[in-house]
Amino acid sequence: LTVAEERKMTQEVLPKMRKDYPQLRDPQMQYYISNLGQKIVRKNNLAGNPYNYNFSVVDVNYVNAFALPAGTIFVTTRLIAMADSEAELAGVIGHEVGHVKARHSAERMFQAKQEQKKSWLYALGGGLGGALVGFGIGKLVCPPKDKKCLAKAATYGGGAGALGGLLIQKYGFLANSREDEMEADRIGFRTSTKAGYDANYVGRFYSKLLKMEEDRKRGAGMLASFADAMSTHPPSRERVQQMNQMANNYNTKGLVTTNEFSSIKAKAKKISIKKG
Questions:
Q1: Strand partners, 57
Q2: Fewest 10 Å CB contacts: which of 20, 63, 137, 208?
């Protein structure tokens, strides 16, 4: 695939996705996340090499971040609220940059088109990464119209949310391969630390995901199945171990957080609470 073909795939699906993932109407948050993303791009000499990146906050109430080919990256308010430092959030964004840089989505789209001989739009839907920053559920265990099951999923989902699973189903999101996820993790670590963030903090979001995964596994019935739905993703423990190893190897000190992040996080928490 050429870069132009990757852009075309994203352009085809964006209008539809914007309806389900509307941009948050908050200039301050949009400015902040764009600046953070562009800082990572700039410090790693990625601008126009070969993609032009753009970052935006989307107004949906569950933990998610994902990347479309050619540099379009979305982050949700609840994910921002869940991060404890700017370095941690930078690690998440760096992970998504890693998927773009390594052309993971483009590779899966191409394979889907070749194997299923569907439209570019279908192939794109089948190629996107899952919820929870590519760490996530992959599919939802509840039947689409089972409101009781969905309510229970929303209660115990640890921030993932039933709606996120439904949107993943709608777009045919496939789980990233173990190799792709681990590679994106490594790229995210390197790009974040090169942007000046502390190596001991950029991977800490993985520990949160590990706790969510373990909480689900301790549950019964639907919760156990919810954890099983994550089986196509690398275990979070493996990812935490990789981050810890990289942090020990790099051992570079840097920026941990900023007052601006604290302000944005507080605003994101208010938005998430208001949405319930």
A1: 75
A2: 20
Q: Provide the pLDDT for residue 187.
A: 95
Helical pair 86-101 and 259-275, crossing angle rounded to 10 deg: 80
> Which residue, chain included where needed, has tokens 């109407």?
25
Least confident of 153-157, 232-236, 255-259: 153-157
- Identify the CA nearest to 189 among candidates 235, 103, 251: 251
Rounded CA gap, 79 and 22, in Å?
A: 16
Structure tokens at 151: 């309510």
Residue 157: how many other CB atoms lie within 10 Å:
24
**Cβ atoms of 29 and 264 closer than 8 Å:** yes
10 Å CB burial of residue 94 (0-12, 13-18, 19+) is buried
* DSSP notation for 179-203: HHHHHHHHHHHHHHHHTTB-TTTTT
Distance CA 66, CA 108 (A): 14
**Contact between residue 267 and residue 78 where contact means Cβ atoms under 8 Å apart:** no
Q: Please provide the distance, in angstroms rounded to a whole number, between the alpha carbons at the two ends of the chain.
A: 42
pLDDT tens digits for range 114-156? 666 555 454 444 334 333 333 333 233 344 455 554 444 443 3
